Amino acid sequence: MSTPALVDRDDVRSRVDHLVDLYLTGARHDAVAEHGDDVVPLFDAMGRLLGGGKRLRAAFTYWAWRALTTDVGEAEGALRLGAALELFQAAALFHDDLMDKSDTRRGHATAHVHFARVHRAGGWPGDSAQFGLSAAVLLGDLALAGCERMLSTALEHLPERVGSPTREIFDTMRAEVTLGQYLDVLSQVRPWSDDAAEDERRARAVIRAKSARYSVEHPLSLGAASAGADEETLAGVRRFGLPLGEAFQLRDDILGVFGDPATTGKPAGDDLREGKRTVLLARALGGATPAEAALVRGLVGSPELTDEEINDLREIFVRTGALDGVEKLVDELADEAFAALDALDLEGEGATMLRALGYAAIERSA
């Protein structure tokens, strides 16, 4: 079953979308009442980004809750946790896009690019690019405020005994993503290393902090905690979520180089232009000839990379065995994850959906 079809089960997507839309409508109404129509473009930009998500994190949260709860009658808390994750994801993307200098996201201009264009079209004084950057930072902050508001309402719909552990997981996730983002930025400015194994270790550390836990492990843990799972069960959920999350990000890294722009919504080779120090890149350098390694180091990180140069880099990734090696690593991590899921000994539709969502996360094309 496709990812969209899986997320549509139990109307998870539509119910999470409804909660996000309710928040945006209310926040926009209050902001316009206080500040006038000048703030409308901020909410329009947030709505464009929030309207394009896959809702996979929200689905992981909901189905972990379903798999572990004894009372499926009241889903509002779990769904609101999913909506809070979507708002946090929006904040992370607004900030990530400007740090990466990305031009497009989900087939649309990124926020900083859009607002720079608005500035130029209006003939306003000052630096258009700086206006765009400022607007994108503030959009991210606004989405974070929405995330906190949605989290608070989620906790109001959950039993009081699960509120503290659920919030602790959410708070840990937010801090960890920020630190992981810094490690990612740091990795891109460090001098090239001659130690491919160390480069891969660093790349995987960034994956775990910035993406793996945030994309899969923490959403699963939030669902489990909100269902009242004990520490032993939560540990088992994390053993399922972390390797699955790492495999999820490794798939993303492959798509960042080999993905179809019509499907991913991002230009081909964007990760190469941004200079992302991925496991795929580390493996390529580890297996490259001196001439190939020099070419890779000379091209990766150049914003002016041509399609021909991107194809040259792709050929090196294939020829060195880097692509096959990362695909094999994805399979190994998936095996580890699903063995941990089996060990949880869950039954029913929730367990079936967690497995299906796990496969969808690592077999996706966008």
Automatic annotation (TrEMBL):
Its cofactor is Mg(2+). Keywords: Magnesium, Metal-binding, Transferase. The keyword Transferase applies. It comes from the Bacteria. InterPro entries: Isoprenoid_synthase_dom_sf, Polyprenyl_synt, Polyprenyl_synt_CS. It holds the Pfam family polyprenyl_synt. Belongs to the FPP/GGPP synthase family. This is Polyprenyl synthetase family protein. The lineage of its organism: Bacteria, Bacillati, Actinomycetota, Actinomycetes, Micrococcales.
